[in-house]
Specification:
29% helix; alpha/beta; eight-stranded parallel barrel; 21% strand; globular
């Protein structure tokens, strides 16, 4: 099994991104996904910056994949997606069907992220015929459903599971972070920069419920499948994805790398989470639940 680092879901400063990926070059991850997947207004890191970072990571021995946005709302965003798909240097993770169409029409292999919503083997077969080489199941897919799909997974198609991070749940044309500050979307004042791991939304009882990340809604709780590494290996999962966070990413990567090496450990992973953990979807329970059985 391999380890991957998913695209940064949040809006970080240019300097923070540069420093983060300098650290990633030294982390024991095999695959790194790069690019803005949430909001086109996040322009502190531009296309050429992503390519420069991709080359640096490739030189460090990483497989680098460029990720496209999950929700396209303007011609300018389509233009950026076309540029990514036609980069000619790095493979692409398609996060919506428009990118799938572009890659397939060009005869290029591609990966699909969790927002493409693949729920069965029949869909996988259609995508494999179009050029799919790796897929990430939707975060709400449970282990039994995944096991059934993997029995029919097309040959040479890898499966990558979202194993750590605040889960991407939904996208909207509305910017929830701007709304939280009583600002219009077109004048959001880039408030996402103030929330390096998203803005936690709590219930009236004070329980963490969701995380607001611009136009993206996430789980407030962190999906943690570290204890499921052995199960996923038996199922035939090829790659485990860690979603980057503002702090502790290196510690999280090392914990998963140790688990892949068979090191018998039970680290306290909750100290690395913004507000707490969950694994309910994987265990066929409510997504916010955390279960040991």
């Amino acid at each position: 099994m391999k380890l991957s680092l998913g695209p940064v879901q949040y809006y970080w400063s240019r300097e923070d991104l540069q420093e983060f990926y300098r650290q990633v070059a030294e982390m024991p991850v095999d695959i790194v996904y790069l690019g803005e997947t949430v909001c086109s207004k996040r322009r502190l890191f531009r296309h050429d910056d992503w390519l420069e970072t991709a080359r640096m990571l490739r030189d460090a021995g990483k497989e680098v994949v460029l990720s496209t946005m999950a929700l396209l709302e303007a011609e300018s965003e389509l233009k950026t997606m076309r540029r990514i798909c036609a980069n000619g240097e790095f493979p692409v993770e398609a996060n919506d069907m428009a990118a799938v169409q572009l890659m397939s029409a060009a005869g290029l292999p591609f990966t699909v992220g969790p927002t493409v919503n693949v729920y069965n083997a029949a869909t996988l077969k259609v995508l494999a015929e179009a050029g799919l080489i790796r897929w990430v199941p939707p975060v709400e897919l449970d282990r039994k459903t995944l096991a059934a799909i993997l029995e029919e997974v097309p040959q040479d198609v890898e499966t990558e599971v979202f194993a750590w991070g605040r889960m991407p749940l939904a996208m909207s044309a509305r910017c929830y972070t701007a709304r939280a500050y009583n600002l219009p979307k077109d004048d959001c004042q880039y408030r996402c920069l103030d929330h390096a791991d998203g803005l936690t939304l709590r219930t009236r009882e004070g329980e963490p419920f969701l995380a607001l990340n611009g136009i993206q809604t996430q789980s407030a709780l962190t999906c943690n499948l570290l204890s499921e590494v052995g199960v996923m290996r038996q199922l035939g999962v090829d790659v485990l994805r860690i979603s980057p966070q503002a702090r502790h990413t290196a510690h999280i990567v090392r914990s998963f790398a140790d688990a892949l090496r068979g090191k018998d450990q039970h680290p306290d992973m909750e100290r690395f989470m913004p507000v707490g953990g969950c694994n309910g979807y994987w265990r066929e329970k409510a997504g916010m639940r955390y279960s040991q059985s």
